[in-house]
């Protein structure tokens, strides 16, 4: 049994689905179901006794303590977070509450639980914290990619809140001996990503004939990794990572934002041509994001050499799969965008 937090979000849901497709070890999935959490992502697990869903906040330490005592998981995998940089610029408070204070509460609960373990349960326990490459700050065009030794230089409230959480995780290992693992991953793409993030936003807006907003001149560079490859990296770190260690996960696949948007437009032209003309006519350069990092790039040598991890998906095939998924799931997109899903959560749980 493992406890996953944030398992109804984009990466968490992909991870839970992958996990239960690979083996039968059950998952307790604790998620607050914010706007970004969507149980529809896990619809194929309905009635599956290997998946126990709990709607809760990672900041509710007493509840987490009860769950740990009751289910005795061998690991906690923490995906739960506020994750969107633009939202963090407009409203940083939730980011500090969930990403810093929430992770602190989860660590406290895990510390108490771990202190009570003995024998094989004690030896096997891991606290795996999922983080981002954005904690390392921004690179110039010819700087080497981020290694795990790179200094933390977060620039947005989002990355600063994730950096704060990463530091707490590190401290809980050094101070209390909690067997932690931290992964710092580059930008993910794939099915079930909320259409506020670049790739699903471009697909969704293009199909609706709406502008495709691009910050500045579109020359900011990101490294992109297919979400299934992120999940396989996390599984590998959980299996064989050294307690206390940090592992970068990335695709070594750098793209400027404008090149990605043009690529998606061209693929959509091929799959679903628009009689009004090529989709790139919709590209709209908008005022740059404040403090916009120029470039992120990940050096994943440690994960490759120590744990033998390799991404399976190249970018062209990953993008094809992603576009195909969004073309096949217009209802999913329309429901999360329209707020119909929020109404359903309110009905089920009495709030939203
Ligand atoms: P997401 O926003 O899609 O999902 C976050 C999930 O956490 C949602 O299900 C939400 O309901 C849940 N959640 C939020 N606050 C909570 C709380 N207080 N208690 C319990 N659950 C809560 O995010 P994502 O893109 O899937 O990212 C998951 C993790 O991976 C985050 O920690 C993020 O920082 C990290 N990460 C994301 C990317 C990326 O490209 N998306 C890259 C690297 C790292």
Sheet of most strands: 7 strands, parallel
Shape: globular
Alpha-beta classification: alpha/beta
Low-confidence stretches: none
How many helices? The count is 13
**CATH H level, superfamily name:** NAD(P)-binding Rossmann-like Domain
How many domains make up the coordinates?
1
* CA gyration radius, whole angstroms: 20 Å
Helix content: 40-55%
Mean pLDDT: 96
Strand tally is 12
Strand order of the largest sheet: 3-2-1-4-5-6-10
How far do the termini sit from each other?
Answer: 28 Å
Tell me the strand percentage band. 15-25%
- Classified by CATH, the class is Alpha Beta
Family: Belongs to the NAD(P)-dependent epimerase/dehydratase family. dTDP-glucose dehydratase subfamily.
Cofactor: NAD(+)
Catalytic activity: dTDP-alpha-D-glucose = dTDP-4-dehydro-6-deoxy-alpha-D-glucose + H2O
Protein name: dTDP-glucose 4,6-dehydratase
